[in-house]
Write a structure and sequence with these properties.
The structure is a single chain. The protein is α/β, with parallel strands linked by helices. It folds into two domains: 25-84 and 388-430, Urease, subunit C, domain 1 (Roll); 85-385, TIM Barrel. Helices cover 30% and strands 20% of the residues. It has 14 helices and 17 strands. Strands 6, 7, 8, 9, 10, 11, 12, 13 and 14 form a nine-stranded mixed β-sheet that branches. Strands 1, 2, 3, 4, 5, 15, 16 and 17 form an eight-stranded mixed β-sheet that branches. A hairpin with a 2-residue loop joins strand 16 and strand 17. Helix 12 (349-358) crosses helix 13 (364-370). The chain is globular, with a radius of gyration of 22 Å. The N and C termini lie far apart (55 Å). It binds zinc ion. Zinc ion (ZN) binds at residues 89, 91, 118, 337.
Length: 430
Amino acid sequence: MSWSRIAIACALVVPCAALSAQRPARPAATLLIQHVTLLDGNGGAPTANADVFVQDGRIAALAAPANTAAVTTIDGRSLFLLPGLIDAHVHLSGDPWDEAAATLKRVLQGGVTAVFDVAGDTRLTGDLARAQLSGEIASPTIYYSALFGGPAFMTDPRVAASSIGFRPGAAPWDQEIDANTDLVRAVAAAKGTGATAIKLYAALDAATVRRIGEEAKRQSIRLIAHATVFPAKPSDLIAANVKYLAHAAYLVWEGSPSSTDFTKRAHGDFAGVPADGPVMTRVLQSMKDHDVALNPTLWILAEGPAKDDPSGLRTAWMNLVTHRAQDLGVTIAAGVDSMTSRADALPMIHREMEMLVKGAGLTPMQAIVSATRGAAHAIGVDDARGTVAVGKVADLLIVDGDPSIDITNTRRIRYVIKDGRVVFTAAPEK
Ligand SMILES: [Zn+2]
């Protein structure tokens, strides 16, 4: 049925219950959190005794309104309020729809209010994004990417799995790119999936990456990438206007001879290319100068499913390069690459922040910024999300205990607020 025929059917057939049931849940009109300690996501010292007034899903004021008679209030004394967490590196499309929706609900209740999917089947991801926007499922807001890779990557079984019904490389969200590709059409097709970014995965050379970068800029879609895409190196990606590099450990390839063997991506020369040497300093400084964010993914490579490291050097290397990136002013964007794990009841973004503190030596406040303002900036949504400020979307997390003193306090969740509505409440700790 066409959209206009739905409208006519709605006008003629009363009631139009099936359609009205999918309308967005209306945000609670007003909500006031009083006397709370505010960590606004910008990284400055917490503000004691703050008031946050929410109206129609947005932060309306950092003060109480004159008349609070009809306002729902939360007593924030002894509590700590921060922006809802953003996981800037997820993959939603491996599971069936119902399972993915159930996981997203759990992740929302665990304090994550936005996620950025960095490759998969956008038919499923896009439908989950629609279901979230329509109020059909309780979920973080979902942003997602389309993938570009070279011919050699198209035999990867994940490409076939995420593009069922298409020859691998021919789906608009999983495209094979070479020197002859019509990039005007390729980028337009990627945009047509609803993706807000194109991710460069593997098997692309510097010249091709540069051409993609020019066309993506012309069509105003964000470019993100693995930190090396073989043979293109980190510096080639930065030169091509990529705005987000994933996996800090892959930066090591800047210091090695060019290679097309992308299967070795997690196993670079960590002994021969020091994280604090001149090659890495040049790359990190260039990331800072060109506003390219680093998505370190420490947990998955140190403790998670990708922890295999024959060199025994990788964890210390990626921790140090992440620490240096932070020191040089590079935006750090927390993102896990595995939203949940059986090892943890809460979404893994909490563990990733802990690794940023305990492994990479960030301050707890820097780790909080990486999962709020930093992640929002890296995925291009910081005009609406990632900080607590007037006009921003009211996606908020309220916890017991100051996470700027002990990062594990982000786990002590009391309230999760999504689009101005309380979507999860936990009883006070005994
Ligand atoms: Zn990933």
